[in-house]
Design brief:
Blueprint lengths: L9 H28 L1 H4 L13 H7 L4 H4 L14 H8 L21 H9 L19 H5 L5 H5 L16 H9 L29 H12 L13
Helix pairs in contact: 5-6
Length: 235
C-alpha cells in the first residue's frame, strides 16, 4: 500500500508570505520605474555639491559677471564650455615663489580656493560635476538658442541667485516642445540674454509691454520658426 505524501502545515503560511512578497516586489518595481522615467521627480531640484564652493550668487549676482566670461562658447558652439582653471586664475591666481600675489589676485589665501591654486600649479582640471544632463540621444545646441533670444533664465533659472546651482526645469521632451510651439514668452532682445534680471518693465524701450509681446517682436525680427519635428533633437 502506497503512503500518501502530505505537505507540512507550515507550508500554508509560506504560500501566503510568498504571495505578499511577489505583490510587494511588484509595487516596489513599479514605483522605481515611475521615479526613473519621470523627469519632474528625478531631475528638478538636483543640486550636486561641487568639489569647491563656487557661488553664482556672488559672481553672476553680486559682482554682475556676464555668463559668457566663463561659459565663453555659448554663442558659437553647441555646448556651454566649462571654464578652464586659467579663467579662475585671472582673479584668484596663487602667490609666486616669493610669496607675492598678482595685483589683481583676490582671496589668495582662502582655503576654499585651495583646489583652484592646486589646479593652476599642476595643470590638472577641477572635477566639476555636471548639473543639467540630457540623454545621449538628445541633441541640444546652446548657440542656436542664445543667438535667437532665449535667455539663460528660461532653462537654468536665476542662477545669479544660487549659491549652489540646482536644476529648476524638467528638461523633458514635453517641456522643450511646449517652448518650440509657443516661444514668445521665452524670447527677449539678444543683447539681454545674459542679463538675468532683465524684464520689459525695467527697459524704457519696451515700457508697458508684456514679456510675451516683446518675445513676439523678437521672433518676427529674427524670423524665427522653431521646428517641432523629431529630427530636430533626435539626430
Amino acid at each position: 500500500m502506497t503512503r500518501r505524501f502530505f505537505f507540512p502545515r507550515w507550508t500554508n503560511r509560506f504560500v501566503v508570505v510568498l504571495l505578499i512578497g511577489i505583490l510587494g516586489f511588484g509595487a516596489y518595481a513599479g514605483a522605481v520605474t515611475w521615479f526613473a522615467i519621470d523627469p519632474q521627480l528625478i531631475n528638478v531640484g538636483y543640486s550636486p555639491r561641487q568639489p569647491l564652493p563656487f557661488s553664482h550668487e556672488v559672481h553672476a549676482g553680486k559682482l554682475k559677471m556676464d555668463c559668457r566670461y566663463c561659459h565663453n562658447t555659448v554663442e558659437r558652439a553647441g555646448h556651454a564650455a566649462i571654464p578652464p582653471t586659467a579663467t579662475c586664475g585671472n582673479c584668484h591666481s596663487p602667490k609666486d615663489e616669493q610669496g607675492i600675489a598678482a595685483k589683481a589676485a583676490v582671496l589668495t589665501d582662502s582655503p576654499k580656493l585651495e583646489l583652484v591654486r592646486e589646479s593652476i600649479e599642476t595643470g590638472q582640471s577641477i572635477p566639476w560635476i555636471k548639473v543639467h544632463n540630457l540623454p545621449d540621444f538628445v541633441y541640444f545646441n546652446h548657440s542656436a538658442h542664445v543667438t535667437a533670444g532665449v535667455s539663460c533664465v528660461s532653462c537654468h533659472g536665476r542662477v545669479d541667485q544660487m549659491a549652489q546651482v540646482a536644476q529648476v526645469e524638467t528638461l523633458s521632451m514635453k517641456w522643450c516642445l511646449n517652448c518650440h510651439r509657443n516661444p514668445d514668452p521665452h524670447l527677449r532682445p539678444v543683447d539681454k540674454v545674459t542679463q538675468l534680471d532683465w524684464t520689459p518693465a525695467d527697459d524704457p524701450e519696451f515700457e508697458g509691454m508684456t514679456a510675451e509681446e516683446v518675445g513676439a517682436l523678437v521672433r518676427e525680427e529674427l524670423d524665427l520658426s522653431p521646428d517641432t519635428s523629431c529630427s530636430t533633437c533626435h539626430r
